[in-house]
Amino acid sequence: MALDETNSLSRLTEQFPGYEKFTSHITSVTLSFVLPFLYITDRHNPRITASLLNQIYRNSGDCSPTHFAHINATACFTARLLYDTVLNALAGWEVTWENGCQNWPGEDGKRYNDSIDSFLHGLRNLRNKSWGGTAKGSGRTADEEPRMVLLIERAERLKDNLPDLIVPLTRLAELSQVKITTILLSSARWEDIKPPLGASPDPYFIDIDPPSKQDTVDSLLFEFRSASITHARADKQDKTYHPSLLPLYEQYVEHVYNVCSLYTTDIQELQYIAAARWPGFVKPVLREQSDAHGDGDPDPDGTCTELTLPASDGRMRLLKFFTPSLTTALDVLYPRLTNATDWALANDPDMQASEEAQCQTNTEGSIIVDHLPRMSKFILLAAFLASTNPAKSDVRMFGRGADKQKRRRRKSASPKKAGAQTTVAKVSQRLLGPVVFPLDRLLAILGALLEENDVENRPHEPWFELPGEYTDMELGRVHIYAAITELTSMRALHRTTAVEKLEGPPMYKCGISFWVAGALAKDLQVPLNDLMWDPV
Amino acid sequence: MSPHKPEEPDNSDDADELNLSPLKLPANCTTPPPRPHVGRVLLHSVEITTPRSFPKLAFTASPAPSTRQPLAKIPTTTTGVACHVAELVAASPSRPSPFQNVLPPQNSPNRTDQLPSTTSRDRLQSKSPKKDQSPASRPQSPTRIPRSLPSHLGTCLRLQKSAMLSELQNCSMECDEGASLGPVNTAASQQLKDLLAGTVTRGEGNSCFVLGPRGSGKTAIVDRAIASLDQTPIVIRLSGHTELNDRLALREIARQLSLQTGKTYLGELNNDDDQDDDDNPFLDASPSIDIPPPSHLPALVSALTTLSRPVVVILDAFDLFALHARQALLYCLLDTAQSCKVGQGHNGIAVIGVTTRIDTINLLEKRVKSRFSGRMLRTAAPTELSFWMKLIERVLRARIEPQEEEWEPLWTLAIDNFITDRKVLEQIQETVAVTRDIRVLQRILIGVVAALAPSSPFPTCAQLISAVHAQRICDPFPHLSTLPYPSVCLLIAAVHAHTAGHDAITFEMLYDAFREQYRASAAAPIQVAGGSIGMSRCTREVLMRGFERLIGERIFICITASSTSIAPGFARYRSALTWDDVKRAVDKMGKTNLKKWLTKAQ
Questions:
Q1: Where is the composition biased (Basic and acidic residues) (chain B) (predicted)?
Q2: Taking the CB of residue B461, how many other CB atoms lie within 10 A of it?
């Protein structure tokens, strides 16, 4: 048994480098039931920690009777889901079609998911059942009570979804009189989810240290090895993950780490970036190999042959060549602007030059305005101005004297200088977010914009004599209102008053960002900066 | 060194002499009798009772400039010494030694970290000669503690660990036995036992509170009092944390009763519930719970005294029950307890409220309060340090049956040294002064025990301090200096916004500040040693990821409810960090560009 233990431990160490200390700590703490409640804070790689804990407790079944439930507080967003998931996992009950898709029935056929009391009864029942079962089955002493471990991942979600359950979950052992250890795993601190008035006992705290560079590289290498094993099993001709490429991969991963670690040290993100770039990176190497072997015969047992790796200067050239694409990969893949497959296709080293334009993805992310009709663009621009400028500045910004001479009395001082006089500098509205404006104001600003920028483009209509009369007519058209409604439905405008409300003008808020507005203004040839109260 | 081991080449010793006479000496003085060097004998008598001043004294005595190099070498040489001693002991057959198989300790990878522990260990080791001189009560008494565990003692260590952990578990469950419980708890325990005995044997109706701070042994006292009864009563445990209203509590009472008596109560309700189940299994949980109507409450509670055995009702978190509507459950329970008279053929009932809230009695309504007996049993943890030290000692000296007989003296010696360490005492004193919650101490001890490993097999003061830091005085944000660049940029921008008087920040504000800073640093590129120390480029989206990360860690706290109509860039947040926190983190990171930005006046 001891041999088994060391074996599984060494396997864990290999799979999770850098976690040795934590593994020995947590196993010795939870080996015998000492602590009813642990809180693990991992701000770096909580998912990896969760899978490590999962493996520890799943594999420890043979040396001590442990029932283990691993739930995610994101998935268990109602109390009932949580009860059912926990009990099913602890009892090892699989919900299948054959058993009628029912939850763990217990022995008395009662429901255990209707309240926390029933859940506690369920736990007790489970304890009695497995206790009796093991005592009879393997002749264990009856006083060896089965231990249970409940691991809750992303425990910070409990505070939002199930605030009433935090206290009972943290006192689970005390309330149920069952030897159950609750482990909360989260990236937030316990102080952030702690219920008020000290209702929960303080947990045993474990903080997980950030992984070192070597640990990160090691765990990426482990992934490569397991990928190459699965590829070899699948018997693919693809040599991308050939085992003999491991030294090259090590160098590559270190390079990826050096490029990206300034921005993220998350192992899984690095893995994602590395995996996205690796097939392209290794392509020239593989091509050289197949050229050397001769194109004619793709040897059937190609997986067995060793690949010769490029010499050190060749490797340096490769790394140098791919450095810029790693940076773009970080910029695109880390915020998940696109997925790894698409990105790898778009950044194929063979056709990189041609696809340069493709790389410019929809980084703004929100609303695409290129296809809008001209009037809608004006409406959006007017909405942006109405949301950004203070309402009392409208006369100054858009007003015209009788002599048709522009008389703008813009505040000449920049906002920074104004801030120097008062105690608190005002933050530009552009940064604080759009304010709400009534529809009338939008129409008025739209009229001013159109009169300034659009009149010359219209065909001459002889029956409009007064200045501005034509624009007024345009403003009165029903399609303006239709366009506003359409923009609202595509979330370029937000309507803040209810649709069914009749009194007062409807209120709106602009939904486009400053950059989109700038692009619109450029398109319409409107000097946006001159029209803003706080010019950029 | 050299006189004890003539076959050892001298060069290592010379190196010792050159590099560090000061720290080698204490290690040296542990070596057995023949001591030709007079100077060393003198130093041996310098004595070891002043643990902290000793290394300092040694350092000041050394005239050599305390540069990094000799400092870094200290552990190496001391390991060397220990290694020699071990070999020597093994070589000399005249002396019975438990160190027959002591392996030469490996060079540990992080030497500089070992420095404090090395000195303390030296101190520990230097005690051992005195022990040696003591009469040979233990012929196998070890003279020194090995640095790392010989491999054959690994199982002993594992056994010892699990023994200590189970001891710790017991101390939380049962607090402590007998007189060491402290005067307050002993009195409370006795009163409670008397009260329960009255209920069980004479059929009285009783009610009382058990009041006391957290971790002072309330639940333990109640459990022990019930366990000590000669007749098993029906025990109903309710907790204010789970019974959120009286109807839930009522259902739970019925359920526990039927589990302990075998009869069903509220049976007709369960039938109704079954029908509900068949109706719509997809219905949400809340409406289909078979909650009894409140009208059942008085009937059920008054039936408690008619049962075959006496009943003990334990209300944990009693103050929360007082918040239930009209305090109906408490009224019924206390009314039943009060009206339960001896000699009417009823069995007794005892209602025990367990709470930490000192003014719980004031929460009760008048009609409820008048039915409560007013008995309040106080619990408090013992105040004397000796109690806590005894507790620690008991845990650490947990008995095992070791397979290797050299283990026990070794362990005893290590524990002796640990307990008598002045720093350890200080730490315990401080902890007990802050809180007398036994669970805090328990957690700290678990931290110490769990940190034991073959590489560091015996508890040390450093382990205790790190456990105290992990369990009692947590640093709220220990990881700030390891945050990635985008997050730190946002933190600095937030700090600047705070300085400018804007408590509420949006992502757009921070991004604007970052762009400003980036532009400024790009406009005047400064190169130091060929590398730019300007700001690194960072796209808006990557910064947004950093922002989300900070929100996830609750460093940025949302101050307005999020809504679909507010773009994520404009949601308002507040930073939980102060300028000092960020300053410390940035200093630790050591990036010039960030430091400059942080200290820049805006």
A1: 120-133
A2: 21
When pLDDT is averaged across residues B189-210 and rounded to a whole number, the result is 90
User: Same domain for B169 and B201?
Assistant: no
Q: Are residues B392 and B415 in the same domain?
A: yes
Determine the residue of chain B that is closest to A171 in CA distance. B241
Residue type, B507: F
Here the CATH number for the domain that contains residue B361 is 3.40.50.300
Are residues B249 and B164 part of one domain?
no
Q: Are strands B375-378 and B311-316 parallel, antiparallel or unpaired?
A: unpaired
A262 touches chain B (CB under 8 A): yes
Domains delineated in chain A: 2-207 (3.40.50.300), 213-351 (no CATH), 374-413+426-531 (1.10.10)
- Name residues of chain A where pLDDT drops below 50: 1-3, 135-142, 296-304, 353-365, 402-407, 409-421
Structure ipTM: 0.86
Domain boundary residue among B326, B352, B378? B378
The two tokens of residue B436 are 């007398």
Sort out which chain B residues have CB atoms less than 8 A from A264's CB and list them.
Answer: 484, 545
A406: distance to nearest CA of chain B, Å? Answer: 32
Amino acid, res. A133: G
DSSP string, B544-593: HHHHHHHHHTTSEEE-S---TTS-GGG--EEE---HHHHHHHHHHHT-HH
Phi then psi for residue B491, to 5 deg, are: -65, -45
pLDDT attached to residue B350: 93
**Residue burial B147-185, b: 16+ Cβ < 10 Å; e: rest:** bbbbeebeebbbbbbbbbbbbbbbbbeebbeeebbbebb
Tens digit of pLDDT for each residue in B65-86? 444 444 444 444 444 444 444 4
Measure Cα distances from B384 to B183, B304, B381, B389 in Å: 11, 43, 9, 9
Confirm or reject contact between B69 and chain A (CB < 8 A). Answer: no
CB within 8 Å: A175 and B242: yes
Q: What is the number of other CB atoms lying within 10 angstroms of the CB of residue B398?
A: 19
Query: For B97-126, how does the pLDDT look when each residue is reduced to its tens digit (9 = 90+)?
Result: 444 444 444 444 444 444 444 444 444 444
Confidence of residue B11 (pLDDT cuts 50, 70, 90): very low
B204 and B347 co-located in one domain: yes
A524 touching chain B per CB within 8 A: no
Give the pTM: 0.78
Q: Do B252 and A117 touch (CB under 8 A)?
A: yes
Tell me if B541 is assigned to some domain. Answer: yes
Last residue of a domain, one of B412, B438, B471: B471
- Same domain for B433 and B578? no
A positions 189-218 inside 8 Å of B (CB):
189, 191-192, 198-199, 201-202, 204-207, 210
- Residue A177: name the closest of A215, A226, A125 by CA: A125
Q: Which helix (H) or strand (E) segment is B512 a member of?
A: helix B507-523
Average pLDDT rounded to a whole number, residues B591-601:
85
Which residues 378-417 of B are in CB contact (within 8 Å) with A?
none
Helix axes B385-396, B407-420, angle to 10 degrees: 160
The SS3 call for residue A147 is strand
Say if B422 is an interface residue toward chain A (CB within 8 Å).
no
State how far residue B70 is from chain A, nearest Cα, in angstroms. 28
Chain A environment of B540 (Cβ under 8 Å):
363
Contact A306, A244 (CB under 8 A): yes
Q: Is B527 helix (H, G, I), strand (E, B) or coil?
A: strand
- Scanning every residue of chain A, which has its alpha carbon at the shortest distance from the alpha carbon of B500? A424
Determine contact: A265 vs chain B, CB below 8 A.
Answer: yes
Would you call B501 and A425 a contact, using CB atoms and an 8 Å cutoff? yes
* H/E segment holding residue A2: helix A2-15
Nearest-CA distance from B497 to chain A in Å? Answer: 10
